[in-house]
Amino acid sequence: MSTKTLPAIAFPFTLPVGLFDGGGILHREGVMRSLTGWDELFRERDLRVLDNPAYGILVMLSRAIVRLGEISPVTPDVLEGLFLPDLDYLQAVYNQINPPEAAISLAGEWRATP
């Protein structure tokens, strides 16, 4: 059995456009997971989010995305290269698999508590 397994609750997705890595390879297939309370705390401690609350969406997506093509781990820096349709798509997937009180928006709005 492989030592790399998907999380118990994994949600596969396909980006509408795709993300190019540094080598020019396009990555479209990925897996996202539901987040935990620790993920929220991680976002709260990120200095980039303190400087710019809108950056929180990239931090939270980087915590939720287990893999994107051959890219793992997926960092906020990697996600900065997303095309807007892909960012919108990932936000919709994230909001669908996480409870409404944990919704994220491109405006940097965050509802982490009811």
Mean pLDDT: 82
Helices and strands, in N-to-C order? Answer: EEHHHEHH
Secondary structure tally: strands: 3
Assign a percent range to the helix content.
25-40%
Major beta sheet summary: 3 strands, antiparallel
What is the topology, as strand order, of the major beta sheet?
Answer: 1-2-3
Q: How many domain units? A: 1
Question: In words, what does this structure look like?
Answer:
The chain has five helices and three strands; from the N terminus they run ββαααβαα. The chain is an alpha+beta fold. It has one domain. It has a three-stranded antiparallel sheet with strand order 1-2-3. A hairpin with a 5-residue loop joins strand 1 and strand 2. Helix 1 packs antiparallel against helix 3. It is globular, with a radius of gyration of 14 Å. The chain starts with 9 loop residues before the first strand and ends in a 17-residue tail after the last helix. The C terminus is likely disordered.
Secondary structure elements and their pairing?
Layout: E1 10-20, E2 26-33, H1 37-45, H2 47-51, H3 56-64, E3 65-68, H4 76-79, H5 84-97
Antiparallel strand pairs: 1-2, 2-3
Summary?
The protein has 114 residues and is α+β, with helices and mostly antiparallel strands.
Keywords:
single chain, 114 residues, alpha+beta, three-stranded antiparallel sheet, 5 helices, 20% strand
